[in-house]
From TrEMBL:
This is Carbohydrate ABC transporter permease. It is found in: Cell membrane. Keywords: Cell membrane, Membrane, Transmembrane, Transmembrane helix, Transport. Gene3D superfamilies: MetI-like (1.10.3720.10). The chain crosses the membrane at residues 71-92, 104-126, 153-177, 198-220, 259-283. It holds the Pfam family BPD_transp_1. It is a multi-pass membrane protein. Belongs to the binding-protein-dependent transport system permease family. Its main location: membrane. InterPro entries: ABC_transporter_permease (IPR051393), MetI-like (IPR000515), MetI-like_sf (IPR035906).
Amino acid sequence: MIKREWINAWLLLTPALLLLFGFTHLPAVQTILDSFWSTPRGQRAAVFVGFDNYQRMLGDAVFVKAMVNNAIYAAITIPASIALALSMALFVSRKILGQGLLRMAYFTPTVLPLIAVANIWLFFYLPGFGLFDQIRGLFGFQPINWVGQPSTALYAITAVTIWNQAGFFMIFFLAALQTIPQSLREAAALEGASSWVFFWRITWPLIMPTTLFVSVNATINAFRMVDHVFVMTQGGPNNASTLLLYYIYDQGFRFWDTAYAATLTVVMVAILAIVGIGQFFLLDRRVHYR
């Protein structure tokens, strides 16, 4: 009977496993293999080049710039998105007037298409006529080309990402906060614990699994952002806002250097794999107190 149940279970899983293998694992293996070959051009077939693509990558100044930009982008968007999402979740978890409307307002940026979000913020950043320069003009400041100069282009995209994904992460924190027993709040109130002490000693440890989940997703998002870059800056000016995935897109679809794009993709997948390994093998036990 048990054997029959196992057979039925595997039969039910087979369609999903075939789709997962065909559209995830097989392309990943093919990408790794392509990184050791050259790009076929017209009548010239691809040839095996070994680690030449990787050596080229190490000497590629644009790749180094993209990695530095991505590191800065991740270092800002990950903690800022988590902090903003948690702050919003703490605020709307209380009984306040218009709670449902406020939750919907916080979540609205998440359901907007990324292309639409980028175009909305382009209007905000418009030099002289955009929302930000209109406000700055009231205080006598000169207009700034937010997405057109190297010193601000990357940070302009970073601000859009934080605004766009904080509402999504808020939903997870809100769900985690609602699982905290009311009895703990009552016991803390009887002991005279302040709101800060309750948050730091009780709320924060209990929502750590959710925080870890959100942080991993924020890290993945930081390395797969391409929509905002494509619409707002196209990696410019002078590669000041080029991120790794946009550089992969640029090499693969603009210059049609698919072998080099595959090499860059292998690096990105390796980075994300390290994050996953860190979650499941290094931090999971500490987070779940096992």
